[in-house]
Each structure stands twice: as C-alpha cells, then as structure tokens.
Amino acid sequence: MRVFSRAAIDALGRTRSTPQGVHVMAYAVFAHYRCAAADAGAVRAALLKMRELTREEPANVAYEVHAEAEREGGFVLYEVYADRAGFEAHCAAAHFEELILGVVRPLLAERHVTFAEVL
C-alpha cells in the first residue's frame, strides 16, 4: 500500500474526511484479462512494465497487477487515479499505446473492464 503525504492528497483535489482520516475520492478501474497459456509470459511481462511506468504518472494513486491463482493466463488489474481525467491521461500515454494496445490487447481472448468512483 502506498502512503501519501497531506500535500499529495491535497494535490489530488478531491478528498473526504472520515473518523479514520483523509481519503482520496478517486476513479478506479478493475480489469480482468485472459489470454492463452502460451501467451501468459508476454502478457505478464508487459503488465509488470506497465505497472512500473504507470506508478510514475502524476494522477496515479495505485496500480496493482494480479495473476489468477487457479487459471494460467488470467490477470486482474486494480488501478486508481485521482480522477477520470487522470485515467484518460494514462490512456493517452506512450507506454499505454506501446504495452497495452501493442502487446497485451492483441493477445487477449477475453477482456472485461469495470470503472468506478469511490463513495
């Protein structure tokens, strides 16, 4: 889990206070990917590189990549951005085009994405 300073949270712009502290009100993405077992290594490598680069984006709050424990070639991504504009900037990044559009998506047999806002 990443910890943010008060200044970083304020920079995100949308926050709410609770008895437990200040929480970022953010835009979340849950992506479920499935590829053939033969392509799992290439997809895994691209997603791990994507994680590294995405975490450097100014609006990224979290980017986690999971491999499904019971299904080879299954991946789950959990992404959080400061807001929808931050996610849109992520999709416009060169590394998104190179790794997601250029490597990952062509290898997928299934792709399901859910977008959510923190309540």
Task: Describe the model.
It is built from four helices and six strands. With 119 residues, it is α+β, with helices and mostly antiparallel strands. Strands 4-5-3-6 form a four-stranded antiparallel β-sheet. Strand 1 (15-18) and strand 2 (21-24) form a beta hairpin. Helix 2 (40-54) packs antiparallel against helix 4. It is globular. The protein starts with 5 loop residues before the first helix and ends with a strand. The relative contact order is 0.25. Mean pLDDT is 86; it is low at 1-8.
CATH topology: Alpha-Beta Plaits
C-alpha end-to-end distance: 19 Å
How many structural domains are formed by the residues? 1
The major sheet is characterized as:
4 strands, antiparallel
Strand content: 35-45%
What is the top-level CATH class? Answer: Alpha Beta
Helix content: 25-40%
- The dominant shape is globular
On the 0-100 scale, what is the average pLDDT? 86
How many distinct beta strands? Answer: 6
- Unreliable stretches: 1-8
Short recap of the structure:
The chain has 119 residues and is an alpha+beta fold. It has four helices and six strands; from the N terminus they run αβββαββααβ. Strands 4-5-3-6 form a four-stranded antiparallel sheet. The protein has a two-stranded antiparallel sheet with strand order 1-2.
